[in-house]
């Protein structure tokens, strides 16, 4: 799905509709792991493998992409979930 580079939407800090630049949110890197992630790593390491089977069937085929909207008037950014699509390009 093609998504516009700019869109006119509500800005909470300006309290009105303004033109926003659209970016995709980067996934980034996890710096510290949560307790559950550390425990999972400990359980999976060594002999034995998965403690319980991985989920293979999913109700949804697609995922929602996170969009970063930057206000052109005040410069503030807000994150909003995008539409459900398999592929998304911002043009
Ligand atoms: Zn604004």
Write the layout of secondary structure elements.
Blueprint: E1 2-3, E2 6-11, E3 16-24, H1 35-44, E4 63-71, E5 77-85, E6 89-90
Parallel strand pairs: 1-6
Antiparallel strand pairs: 2-3, 3-4, 4-5
Bound molecules: zinc ion (ZN).
- Tell me the strand order in the biggest sheet: 2-3-4-5
Quaternary state, please? single chain
For the secondary structure, the number of strands is 6
- The CATH topology name of the domain at 1-26 and 63-86 reads Nuclear Transport Factor 2, Chain: A
* Main beta sheet strand tally, sense and closure: 4 strands, antiparallel
User: Which residue ranges are poorly predicted, with pLDDT under 50 across at least 5 consecutive positions?
Assistant: none
**SS field, number of helical segments:** 1
Quote the distance from N terminus to C terminus: 10 Å
CATH architecture of the domain at 1-26 and 63-86: Roll
* CATH C-level of the domain at 1-26 and 63-86: Alpha Beta
Shape: elongated
Radius of gyration: 19 Å
Q: What percentage of amino acids are in beta strands?
A: 35-45%
């Amino acid at each position: 799905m093609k998504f516009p580079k700019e869109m006119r939407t509500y800005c909470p800090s300006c309290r009105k509709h303004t033109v926003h630049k659209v970016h995709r949110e980067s996934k980034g890197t996890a710096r510290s792991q949560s307790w559950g992630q550390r425990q999972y790593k400990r359980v999976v390491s060594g002999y034995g493998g998965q403690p319980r089977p991985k989920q293979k069937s999913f109700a949804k085929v697609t995922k929602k992409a996170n969009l970063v909207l930057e206000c052109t008037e005040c410069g503030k950014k807000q994150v909003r979930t995008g539409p459900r699509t398999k592929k998304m390009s911002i043009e």
